[in-house]
Amino acid sequence: MQDSILQLKKNKKINIFGTNYKLISKKGIDRNSIQIVDDNVVMNLKDNCTEKQYANLVKNWYRNILRDEIDIILPNLERKTNIHCSTYGTRNMLTRWGSCSIKSKKIWLNLQLVQKPKKCLEYVILHELLHTKFPKHSQEFRDLQEQFMPNWKECHSLLNN
Which one-letter DSSP state was computed for residue 151? Predict the structure, then answer.
């Protein structure tokens, strides 16, 4: 993920939930910060900001944006499905969009979901939430996934293409 974050500097674009924003960097600021202003992402950087600090700034910003959305989507899905997880976490995953622990009922979501459309985040949350009750892709699992998200195949394709 750090490579993709450092690539932002070159592309001058940043993608948040499927929307591309123009990246505007400003140097000589007292404190590193990022915010969305209209159709732009404005990144304020200290003069001595290192590549590692830059990458951590973007990663933490992504994490905060992702958590804000999860905090809206997850409770809604828990109410709809009447299935609840104990907690959730975000981390960078190389091969999965999400995972869960059946025993602890904790859901993990890939930090890179922040770059996909919100419906993909909703799909992964639903998928992992269902796994807390149905460990395998059983018929009951598939029926519930279809019931609560009829367009899940579209989301699955968006994530894997």
Answer: T
Q: What CATH number does the domain containing 112 carry?
A: 3.30.2010.10
Q: Phi first, then psi: what are they for 86, rounded to 5°?
A: -80, -40
pLDDT digits (tens, 9 = 90+) for 68-117: 999 999 999 999 999 999 999 999 999 999 999 999 999 999 999 999 99
Interhelix angle for 139-148 vs 51-81, to 10°?
A: 100
Tokens 């932002």 belong to 8
- Give me the long-range contacts of 59-62 (CB less than 8 A, separation at least 24): 59/1, 59/2, 59/5, 59/92, 59/111, 61/34, 62/111, 62/114, 62/115
Domain that holds residue 71: 2-160
The answer to whether 97 touches 113, Cβ cutoff 8 Å, is yes
Cα angle 32, 35, 37; round to 5 = 135
